Amino acid sequence: MSSNHEITDDAPWEAAPEMASNDWELAAAAIELALLGRAGGSLPPLPSELAKRIRRDAPAHLPRISVIQPKPDVQRRGRGTAARSRLAMAGWWMAACLAGVLLWQWSAAPRIAAPPLGGGAPPTLAERREKLLANDPEPVTVAWKKAGDDPTINSGKDDAKTAGDLGDVVWSQATQKGFMRFRGLEANDPTVSQYQLWIFDAQRDEAYPVDGGVFDMPVQGAGDIVVQIDPRLTVSRATAFAVTVEKPGGVVVSSRKRLPLLAAVPSR
Amino acid sequence: MKHSLFLRMASGDQSAVSECISRYGGLVWTLARRRLASREDVEDVVQEVFVDLWKSADRFDPLMGEEITFVAMIARRRVIDSLRRRTGLSQTESIHQTGVDSMVDPAGDVSVGQGLELGDDAKLADAHLGQLKPDEQRVLRLSIYDSLSHAAIADRTGLPLGTVKSHIRRGLDSLRDKLAKRDAARHGRLTAGGSDR
Q1: Sequence-distant (≥ 6) Cβ neighbours of residue A221 within 8 angstroms
Q2: Which residue of A35, A49, A111, A117 is the best one to mutate when testing the B interface, meaning the one whose CB has the most B CBs within 10 A?
Q3: Taking the domain B117-197, which CATH number applies?
Q4: Which of A65, B110, B138, B166 is most buried, judged by most C-beta within 10 A?
Q5: What is the pTM of this model?
Q6: What is the tens place of the pLDDT at every residue in B95-148?
């Protein structure tokens, strides 16, 4: 029997470190699975207590998207600003939308994958959104508006549930965190396309919005979808949020061919 | 459109979490138990693996492989990390009760265990192993399945260290190519072009 240091002092793919380890690790995993199959036998179940523990802890570690059941009072429960803000911002949005789209020629935003949540207690994203609204002295709350006739939006014709509410963006300038709530945004196939968030910053050239990362929409029907915003770059003052449809993994430069949603922040 | 288990988890679908634990719990448990001596270590690693899976649910790229292979890859990483952290501990006695030299199966003589649905990647890997020379097959097995170091494999097999490394490299490299070609054919495009996540 070999000693332990023999087991651990190198891994198979270290024979060729120049190779992409992910590919080799996947190949190695496939071989281990094959050899496991050759060994025969059935897999024992996970001990129930351990399974229970893992299931209990999961919400604290899941990525930044969650589905919430529709709650008419979700926005009112914060500081009572969401609905009023949406109305007040409608005019601003029209102007900012036009200006934003015309000036939108960004080219150098970094590609950032959606980050996972950290540890700690497992409040849902909807609850965290509510907490942000309740605790932040000046939360930015703006409604999503259609920025075109993109088919990814269910609103319009006969879908009453999205006719007046496509969701909104809640953003905390102080903590640089926020949440997007979506209603009626089509589910995407991540092997074909993904949604990508862009944040326009008053201190940055409008041609170079901050990349807010890519995200996916699950199948609709379960309710609103909440997605956490966690940009890698500091946003000094958000002026608008935009969602585009891009290839899997997102892009550095958007063609803006598909820009389903825009939320413009009114000037103060 | 088919949504993978990982996409469902990424969207906060709690039923997908339970399904993932149910579907892959036994596999992760087995992969950890094969190498780690104490139950405490095994439980720690299994929990770490699932935390990794939750965190990376939105990074899983179906163009890069099957879910089960992805899960096995994460599990292998965590187990190897754990072994590295625990230098000085004795190797678990439960790993190789069949003996190393009995591991080189005749090509094509595959005994798939009951209840083991290991996926197409594993089937391709199995076929790939069957096409290798006995020495190459044995080296890959000692390295990947038994986690022996290159030096230990050289010592055990009597092969030069350079030969051991080249067997491992070629074996993995060619399987990687086969998997990529299979995926490209399946998805109609090269896997490398799909995503950077």
Answers
A1: none
A2: A35
A3: 1.10.10.10
A4: A65
A5: 0.52
A6: 332 222 222 333 332 223 335 578 889 999 999 999 999 999 999 999 998 888
